[in-house]
Amino acid sequence: MTPEEFRRHGHAVVDWIADYMRRVEDLPVLSRVVPGAIRAQLPEHPPADGEPFETILADVDRIILPGITHWQSPNFFAYFPANSSGPAILGELLAAGLGVQGMLWATSPSCTELETHVLDWLVEMLGLPGGFRSGTVGGGVIQDTASSAVLCALIAARERAVRGGATGRLTAYASSQAHSSVEKAIRIAGMGRESLRLIDVDHAYAMRADRLADVMAADRAAGHVPVFVCATVGTTSSLAVDPVAAIGPVCRTHGAWLHVDAAMAGTAALCPEFRFLHDGLEWADSYCFNPHKWMFTNFDCSAFWVADRAALIDALSILPEYLRNRATATGAVIDYRDWHVQLGRRFRALKLWFVIRSFGVRGLQERIRAHVALAQELARWIGEHPDFELAAPATLNLVCFRHRGGDERNQDIMDRVNDSGHLFLTHTKLDGKLTLRLAVGQTGTERRHVEAAWEEIRESGTRGQGPGTRRSPSKGG
Q1: How many Å apart are CA 313 and CA 429, to the nearest integer?
Q2: CA 460 to CA 477: how far, in whole Å?
Q3: At what angle do helices 146-163 and 309-316 cross, to 10 degrees?
Q4: Which domains does the chain have, with CATH numbers?
């Protein structure tokens, strides 16, 4: 493909994306294909000769698009958002065009220095502890996901303990509501599932610091070595916030590394009124949140900070001869290859830089506040409806609720609304009860989308139950 051919085809792709952004609201949110349907349309063998680009792009519409679940739909309320925006997409395109592999400062100084600077911006934007800034002994790095962040934190904690002379079984701790990535990290790090302690939660599904203290003390008395605690600021099931301010001193007593995972909820701290999420963060050894969830930056982009970069680098750095260079030898540069598991790395900071500069801090804050307000309004409608109830506190943009008719009724409601194609919900279990989750966070989601979702949920809940009275969502549903 010549530069001129690239220009022509590139215009066609950008036009396709722009058209998609305009029409995504009208597409069925959840893909309706059956297993194997996409592969059945693909030729058994790869083409011997190149095909026209126009043919390839046409097959995106014919084959690929029917198999897409539209995460960018304003009616996508499932899981947590993985939202994007025009600036982020263009930043990703530019990064792909540059084709940078930024494993070392020397392999592209701009890749490293922009990342360092944008992560420092985020410390300011989120009101994080100053010790996470690059000008201190700490600093930040962009990981692919929060799963990688928790793994790196765990490995750093393990190595710090071992190098400090720890003997005995190393143990780690998280709440019973913590993300599955914590257990996966324990397995990958070779500590074994039996080394993970899941701590009881309170009525709001947040970790009980007193139970953590008891379990850690019992482990210590049994000859074990507590090395790692993961506190969650915004659990996946209910957006519960673990009490970091109470957990921190417990970790300090035992010399355990405290990692704070704020993967989705952390974005809310762009707004000063939501910075209660960070109470106690001065106790943390590491912290992460995902701009690719709620900060309009397309996947993947997870911001990860440590209070002591030496602990992370000592755990992950290996310097073979073929990576030695003059800049690294000076000790004056950051080589991000030492800050995560993989060696190679993409120029993720570019899209994040595009987003921050395009929206501005105030623009980002406005959108976060709007999403939270919509979720709070939905929570009010649910609370006022006689057939539904809130299943957990709705503090930010996630609403957990259920029909009072029990698990079977709630499963039926979810199946009906998802099969309709108009919206997409997912579920969890809280106190053993099937609970519906509705997360407001897509870039294009407006009040009318939330209203329509609630109307469809409400109607699905009354089907087969006799005639009911339909009321305006703004009057309680």
Answers
A1: 39
A2: 13
A3: 90
A4: 3-69 (1.20.1340.10), 100-346 (3.40.640.10), 360-475 (3.90.1150.10)
Q: The dihedral of CA 119, 124, 127, 128: what is its sign?
A: positive
- What would the mean pLDDT of 173-196 be, rounded to a whole number? 94
pLDDT tens-digit series, residues 33-45: 999 999 999 999 9
**Average pLDDT of span 310-336:** 89
Backbone angles phi, psi at 81, to 5 degrees: -65, 155
What mean pLDDT do residues 384-405 have?
95
- Helix, strand, coil proportions of the chain in percent (round to 5)? 50, 15, 35
Confidence of residue 473 (pLDDT cuts 50, 70, 90): very low
- What residues contact residue 105 under an 8 Å CB cut-off, 6+ apart? 112, 113, 327, 328, 333, 334, 335
pLDDT value at position 263?
Answer: 94
Q: How far apart are the C-alpha atoms of 312 and 112, rounded to whole Å? A: 17
% of the chain residues with pLDDT over 90 = 90
Confidence label for 435 from pLDDT (cuts 50, 70 and 90): very high
Question: Backbone phi, then psi, for 162, in 5-degree steps?
Answer: -65, -45
Using alpha carbons, select from 59, 9, 67 the residue that is nearest to residue 33: 67
Is 275:269 a contact under the CB 8 Å cutoff?
yes
Give yes or no for a contact between 336 and 103, defined as CB atoms under 8 angstroms apart: yes
Could you tell me the CA-to-CA distances from 453 to 121, 160, 163, 421, 467 in Å, in that order? 36, 49, 54, 11, 20
pTM of the model as a whole: 0.93
Cβ-contact 45, 403 below 8 angstroms: no
252 closest CA partner among 213, 305, 222, 308: 213
Nearest Cα neighbor of 212 from 233, 195, 226, 194 is 226
Provide Rg for the chain, Cα atoms: 24
Single-letter amino acid, residue 182: V
Sort strands 225-232 and 170-175 into parallel, antiparallel or unpaired.
parallel
Mean local confidence (pLDDT), 437-447: 96
Whether the per-residue pLDDT at 466 is higher than 60: the answer is: no
Are 127 and 275 spatial neighbours (Cβ–Cβ below 8 Å)?
Answer: yes
Contact 296, 84 (CB under 8 A): yes
| Residue at token pair 């830089």 | 353
User: How big is the CA angle at 414 (ends 411 and 415), to the nearest 5 degrees?
Assistant: 85
Q: Distances in Å between the alpha carbon of 95 and those of 88, 100, 120, 198, 352?
A: 10, 7, 21, 40, 11
Query: What is the pLDDT, as a whole number, of residue 461?
Result: 84
List Cβ neighbours of 125 (8 Å cut-off, separation of 6 or more).
Answer: 270, 356, 361, 364
391: DSSP letter:
S
Reply yes or no: is the peptide bond before residue 308 cis, omega within 30 of 0. Answer: no
